[in-house]
Structures are given as structure tokens and as C-alpha cells.
Amino acid sequence: MNHNHQKGKLKRWNDDKGFGFITSDNGKDIFIHISALKRMERRPKVGDVITYQVDKDNNGKEKAVNAKIEGVSEVRARPGRNNIRKRSKSNRVSAILSIVVIVSIGSFAYNKFAALNPLHKESTTPAYSHAAQEENRNNYSCEGKVYCSEMTSCDEAKYYQRNCPGTKMDGDGDGIPCESQWCSW
What we know:
Elements: E1 2-14, E2 19-24, E3 29-33, E4 49-56, E5 62-69, H1 81-116, H2 118-124, H3 130-139, H4 154-163
Parallel strand pairs: 3-5
Antiparallel strand pairs: 1-2, 1-4, 2-3, 4-5
């Protein structure tokens, strides 16, 4: 590679294909590829003055390398497209995992709060009027039933839980009997 910097004017440029030719000060045409201008703020235009070094390609032909467009700023090296794609995909996965963790923690905390908070229990249990409770007392009596499988309705299960000793109908201790059979809402 010729380490001396040379100067020439961009004679032809095919922007779609990313290559062109520089006419050097001695009148010789030198091939230039867009990769030789990788740190430039903009793509080259016909008529730009280019400073470059000369190297030979695999076929022994001269080409411009380490080129700069005079009067155009250089930009800091940007990460390659593959790195950007990997990073953005990684960021999406991290964001999704973060959301899943936050929702899981929130759901867990809400369920713990609901199970431990007596005010919440009262608000999830339907309010019974005195008349409804009186009606239930007239329809049900403690006949030794202790399990949900022996009940015929949610009202009966609630009556037994409130009024009869030894019932085994509130397995999770939340105050609502027979949730999986009768009292699920």
C-alpha cells in the first residue's frame, strides 16, 4: 500500500452500487468503493475532492483506500448493522422479560394482599341483608354436613360456615366457602 496521501477529483459515481472513479492529479483514474469512505458524514458526489491512499486489489488493480472527502466532517465509528439488530432484539427480549416479571410480582402481591386484608375479604363477599340471613336460617339447619360435596348451593355452604361447628369448606382460609364448587365469582 502506498502510505502517501494523494488527492483527486471524483469523476464518476454510481450511488446505487457504491463505487466510482477518482481522477488523480497525474490524470490517472483510480477506482474507489464506498467502504473507503466509511467514516464520512455524507456519501460522495461527482466533483468532490478526495484525499486517499492507493492499494492494490486481489487482481493487482489499484484502488483508493482510507479516503476522505475534503470539507466533509468525519463521524465516529458507528456499530455495524448486525450489532444494532442483535442489540435491539436483545433489548426487546429484556423489555418483555421485565414486563412479565413486573406483572407476576404485582399479581402475587395483589393476591397476598387480598388473602390477608380483612377489608378486602368483606368487599369480595356479597353483603347479605338481615332478611336474607333470616330466610337462610329458616331453610337450613345444622344437620352434620361439613364438606362442600354435601352442600346444594353457595347460600347453604355460607349458612353452615357461619352457624355450624366443625365445617371444612374454606380450604384457603379466605372466608369464602366452597369456592371451586359453589361460591366462585
